[in-house]
Amino acid sequence: MSAATTLDRAAVERIVREIVVGRSPGGAAAASTEDVADSNLVVSISARHCHLTDAHVERLFGPGQTLTPMRELYQQGFYAAEQTVMLVGPRRRMLPNVRVLGPTRPHSQVELAFTDAISLGIDAPVRASGKIEGTPGCVLVGPHGVVELDEGVIRAERHVHMDFRHAESYGVDNGDRMNLRIRSGTCSVVLEDLLVRADATSKLEVHIDTDEGNACDLDHAESVELLLTEKPCSCH
Amino acid sequence: MSAATTLDRAAVERIVREIVVGRSPGGAAAASTEDVADSNLVVSISARHCHLTDAHVERLFGPGQTLTPMRELYQQGFYAAEQTVMLVGPRRRMLPNVRVLGPTRPHSQVELAFTDAISLGIDAPVRASGKIEGTPGCVLVGPHGVVELDEGVIRAERHVHMDFRHAESYGVDNGDRMNLRIRSGTCSVVLEDLLVRADATSKLEVHIDTDEGNACDLDHAESVELLLTEKPCSCH
Q: Dmax of chain A from CA atoms?
């Protein structure tokens, strides 16, 4: 009863693209730094982290302080900083060492997995990075001072970075959605509706969070594929 | 380019079965107790928990002690006990309050999400319940005493309980695999290869862990469907 046989072979090959598995680095930083060819897909797990404004860096770490790059991320120009902050939730529950990612941004933002947010007692909404209007806040504690965020705590929406060349080859535009299939022992999943973030320079890389990465045991995955969301069958 | 139109309508309806979303109870206990009709599917999140032997109950809680039911689980005869234990990993990291589920069993077993296992420093394998040969151990600490488990720490393989009537209606046998699709905002997933555990009396219920439940935000899911794993298209 397979309907695949009724699909044109070329159409199937346009939909399904076999790619290389990017392993998460583990630990607190946010993205894989593996050196893979641009044409291969990297899937990176973003562990909980925060982005800060220049003013908040000074408030937390001291006047005149700036972020110190500790490790380059896979996307050019981005890095895990040496600095970490303590995150405190509304019921004085806390996470002691949350990595700061650089460079600094116009708005501070905290990105948590739901498991993290629940442990802090924060009802974090799923948002694209930067869309923080109306989201919950929290308290950031650094070695020099404290920042009380009124908003900015989100679960980052799963997404895939790519350049326009990759977008054209997949037949998608910036803002479209794609599916990601991860084959992994008996933990295989299809993560649906990844937001496509296409620009002139980004490398091909999916960002998922620790809940998603742990759900499918990404560290031991056998393969990953990006799929178009146009549904060629009833099972999607 | 939808291939669904080439599928016989009855075949589609045999594959796709719309069902009711079971919400997780939150908190430390293991499964939903919602009262839904047997013909509807319940998806329950099993938070970290353990099963104990009679001897281990006495060692942890005192001579002559037995488990005290606190809340009935959805599957008849099973319950979250009032008792909890502290779990200690190999590097003296710990989880303070892990729920005990009853009734007691011939072998003690600890079921963790990967997020829990990583926080304890335990490399937990994915196993079907009861298949604990060669798995890591841990230390259980109760108010009366301590149990050092040589093995038994697993991530429980995602599975679906059902009775033979449901199995026949899905066209599956005990030990087969099915897929579960969860539609949930921009967090939708297909969890693949759920183990079918069919017997004479079980209610229709999927068990997933907190990583899987958080990956798809099950608490806010719009629908769940059980799908046959026979792949009618290229996208699975």
A: 68
